[in-house]
Amino acid sequence: MSIGLAGLFAVPAAAPAQLADAPVAGIDFSDLAEISVLAESDPMLRKAQAIVNGDVITDTDIDQRLALVIAANGGRVDEAERPRLRLQVLRNLIDEKLQVQEAVSNDIRIADAEIEGAYSRVAQNFKRTPPEFEKYLRDAGSSPMSIKAQIKGELAWSRVLRRKVEPMVNVGDDEVQLLIDRLNAAKGKDEFHVGEIFLSATPESAPQVMADATRIVQQVRAGASFVAYARQFSEASTAGVGGDLGWVRAEQLNDNVAAVVTTLAPGNPATAVSDPISVPGGVAIMALLEKRQVLAADPNEALLSLKQISLPLAATTSQDDARALVTKLQTATQAMGGCGRADEVARGLGAEVATNDAIKLKDLPEALREIMGNLSIGQATPPFGSLQEGLRVLVLCGRDDSAVQAAAPNFDQIYAQLNEERVNMRARRYLRDLRRDAIVDYR
Which of 70, 157, 176, 378 could bond to 338 as cystine, CB 3.0-4.6 Å? Predict the structure, then answer.
């Protein structure tokens, strides 16, 4: 499941609206078999699509932001979905204008240096330098200016909430302690690492928003990035981190959401992503990333001590010769009697030995993780590799399970979680009021 795209910044956005397909009543086009266009159309012209309290949003702004969404989904966006995405992008940009305007009205300014620093970190997330990232964006049909505008909007809104909303939120110590007591009492029960997309809805817009959420689910199950959709569409505070809600228990979730999350299975979009769920204030889409037990040991946190035996292969090695070397390597390593003879066996094979005394089981590739989790000290994996990379075997020299003991609930972490939930709720109301009072001229 595509759930881990890092680096694209976005602000919480309104739920997308379904485009009407029915013809406008009372208009008959049957007598317009031929028409004459009386003015030239220049597709490169930057035309205003909306003016938000005097600030212009152009076609170019929309197209470049839309290109970010499409690039984040690896270009896998149905043609029928593009008009809906474009409409949603426009709504995102309107919200972004309102958020930046609110920051300015509160004398909040975001320094260019801060935006550039965040942009550089985004580029690093894509394993590119800023110039390389600029080329990537332009090749995708976007631009650095577009993503920097997103960054500015997110930073500005964060500062507004910090100044205007967070001081109004109060979480009592007794509330935090009550949740900690419940966590301790739930030790051994299931805990879920989930992602969320929240779309706000009124009773009047609920059917429309539910239909939009259904389309998002279809796109994600077809291979689109849940993270990208969360960043562009979700109105939850987790939008900036791709919808990642972290580890939660069923008791911490809305009852409707909990009933669904407990039935999901990670690993496959068809089973890991929920259908749209009606919740107070809107619609939620949940994705299950991982599952474990509350305050229970996590074997994937085990710290391993490994030796790697590497046997390079010549470029002229044939498939038959390679298979013979695989058999020879496996026979030698399976019978060598532990790590103490790894260097001796490697020398006999003409292989090299490398040591890593501090690698977590979870950091290994999935196929190796499954094999290594079942090995005893001194045992070796089957050979793996390729003609190009050579053959390798991992030998388990030690395993420290003390690292897998789960930490007790942390007061500060629980406090922060409760505080964020309440700030998130107030932030949605704040943005709703800004939308209600805005003067938006659509062109």
Answer: 378
Token readout for 333 is 């390593």
Cβ–Cβ under 8 Å, residues 7 and 122: yes
Q: Where would I find the H helices in 364-409?
A: 366-372
Q: Which domains are delineated in the chain? A: 1-18+45-296+406-443 (3.10.50.40), 299-401 (3.10.50.40)
CB atoms within 10 A of CB 198: 27
pLDDT tens, residue order, the chain (443 aa): 433 333 333 333 333 332 233 333 444 434 434 444 444 434 444 456 888 999 999 989 999 988 888 887 776 677 777 888 888 888 889 999 999 999 999 999 999 999 999 999 988 877 889 999 999 999 989 999 999 999 999 999 999 999 999 998 888 999 888 888 877 776 667 889 999 999 988 888 899 999 999 989 998 998 888 988 888 888 887 887 788 988 888 878 888 999 999 999 988 889 999 999 999 889 999 999 988 776 566 677 788 889 999 999 888 888 888 889 999 999 998 888 888 889 999 998 899 999 988 888 888 887 888 888 888 888 889 998 887 888 999 999 888 765 545 555 678 888 888 888 888 888 888 988 998 888 888 77
The model carries a pTM of: 0.56
- Amino acid (1-letter code) at residue 121: R
